[in-house]
């Protein structure tokens, strides 16, 4: 079964100048589409076998949305807590030292809504940031699991079943891994999600 992403990609790239061109493009892309469908089916089988992994994979849109809303919440907390309320002007220090202390208080002693009693803003930012990093890691990991085998799969086909001496196996593994990394760096979507 074709995923929505594959359908959208095909519809966006097809030449619509004539019926012949559409059929020619479908014929040209059929091997790639079949490969992607087989990979999607293999991922579906793994998701059924490992239910927890399946839940994470099925709801990647949820993890992406939660990550976005957490980023909004973190930025809102930063905006609401950036103040110099924790700073006390010290007349015995120079203006430069007072300015440094003010900047330090703004950056490292945030107070939520400029209130001295709410000194948990930095802890809240760290907790929400950690949750966001976990969600982003889950999303990126599943994207790479879904996309990378389609890009480098043909490079590794038959390599693990080949009977090679240990030295050649190590050298070829290093070369293939380097080339795989190079191929993955050429894919815009992977670079976009990783960075």
Describe the protein's topology:
Blueprint: H1 4-13, H2 19-49, H3 51-58, H4 60-81, H5 95-108, H6 121-156, H7 166-185, H8 188-194
Helix pairs in contact: 2-3, 4-6, 6-7
Note down, in words, how this protein is organized.
The protein has 195 residues and is mostly helical. The chain is 76% helix and 0% strand. It is elongated and about 80 Å long. The protein has two domains: 1-57, no CATH class; 59-194, no CATH class. The mean pLDDT is 83. α2 runs antiparallel to α3 (51-58), α4 (60-81) packs antiparallel against α6 (121-156) and α6 (121-156) crosses α7 (166-185). The chain has eight helices and no strands. The two termini are 30 Å apart.
Provide a quick synopsis of the model.
This protein is 76% helix and 0% strand. It has helices spanning 4-13, 19-49, 51-58, 60-81, 95-108, 121-156, 166-185, 188-194. The mean pLDDT is 83.
Helix content: over 70%
- Count of domains: 2
Radius of gyration: 26 Å
- Name the poorly predicted regions: none
Determine the structural class based on helices, strands and strand pairing: mainly alpha
State the order of secondary-structure elements, H for helix, E for strand.
Answer: HHHHHHHH
- Could you give the count of β-strands? 0
Distance between the termini: 30 Å
State the helix count. Answer: 8
Q: How much beta, percentage-wise? A: under 5%
What's the story with the biggest beta sheet? none
- Averaged pLDDT: 83
Based on CA inertia axes, which overall geometry fits? elongated
